[in-house]
Amino acid sequence: MIETWEAEGFEIVLEKGRPKPLVLSCEQWSEDGDVLAKERFAVKAMGLPGVTTESMRREVIGNFIAHKLGVDTPRPVLVQISKEFCDAITPSLKPYGLKLQPGIGVGCEFIPGMAPIIPNSEKTPRELYDAQRMFAVDRILQNPERHSGHTNTGALANGFIAYGFKKSLQFLSPTADFAPWELSKVHFDKPHLFHAALRGKKSGAYDWSGFVQDVANFNVRELSDFIDSLPTDWGSERQQICKHMASIVGNDTRLEWQLRESLA
Fold it and tell me: Nearest-CA neighbor of 36 among 1, 3, 9?
């Protein structure tokens, strides 16, 4: 369900943000020891600031759900990091105050050329479409970390791409008593990155029907299988996550009003 790659080379440290992900060149091997593929990933792993098994689990599960609901995201993968690799790149990481630990990390497809988001800029129709999807999905995921101070969003020529899901799935430690599908009751300490743009004069004209249909078609069983493919020592909470999504899928007809109310 999720690809596993092996770290083979260090390229750069992405210094923006607390975890300071590493761009690593990675390989996949055949059983005969032949290199099948090479690719670069932005990797978060144990030893980097703020990275835990829980944050890695939330990162890939949040990414998976967002992608299935129509949000453009970098492809998530698992990256096997050996002790020998850690030892080899320690001198390169020392100037950054970083020390990588061996084990399994999470990576996402490294996409060079992403431009930073300008929150209050005029949006193209495609950008508004992407913003609408991100806004809705972040409420479903209860993901508070997409705001003007921490955008976790990049701009490409053909729209926006979302990353940074390590704080998603806030419903796993609930502080409020409401149903998963009651998206209008989800509270974030900081306004969502695209709240103001979507709340503009034309917000009532947004068509949520395509998104609602994608929610109705969401395959909870596929989500369950994806969670089961992750390392067992990361924990699971599969039942709780799948129950949350099943409640949303089962109440898809209520979502349009909930999303409009979220922008009221």
Answer: 3
Residue pair 43/79 in contact (Cβ under 8 Å)? The answer is yes
Asked whether the CA dihedral 245, 251, 255, 261 is positive or negative, the reply is negative
Instruction: Give me 70's structure tokens.
Output: 């129509």
Q: d(Cα 176, Cα 187) in Å, to the nearest integer?
A: 9
Distances (CA, A) of 4 to 1, 59, 80, 135: 10, 15, 7, 30
Residue with tokens 């743009």: 197
Whether the Cβ atoms of residue 69 and residue 211 lie closer than 8 Å to each other: yes
* H or E stretch at 44: strand 35-44
Q: Could you tell me if 258 and 181 are in contact, meaning their C-beta atoms sit under 8 angstroms apart? A: yes
Identify the sign of the CA torsion 110, 115, 120, 121: negative
Tens digit of each residue's pLDDT (9 = 90 or more) over 137-165: 999 999 999 998 889 999 998 899 999 99
Structural tokens at position 175: 């502080």
The answer to whether the CB of 116 falls within 8 A of the CB of 38 is: no
For residues 147 and 188, is the Cβ–Cβ distance under 8 A? yes
- The answer for residues whose C-beta is within 8 angstroms of residue 238's C-beta and 6 or more apart is 224, 227, 228
CA 231 to CA 147: how far, in whole Å?
30
SS3 137: helix
**Radius of gyration of the chain from Cα atoms?**
19
- Going from N- to C-terminal start, the domains of the chain cover 4-109, 115-262
- Condensed to tens digits (0 to 9), the pLDDT of residues 70-113 reads 999 999 999 999 999 999 999 999 999 999 999 999 999 999 88
Q: In what order do the strands lie in the sheet with 159-162?
A: 115-116, 153-156, 159-162
Do residues 46 and 78 make contact, with C-beta atoms less than 8 angstroms apart?
no
Alpha-carbon distance of 138 to 64, in angstroms, equals 13
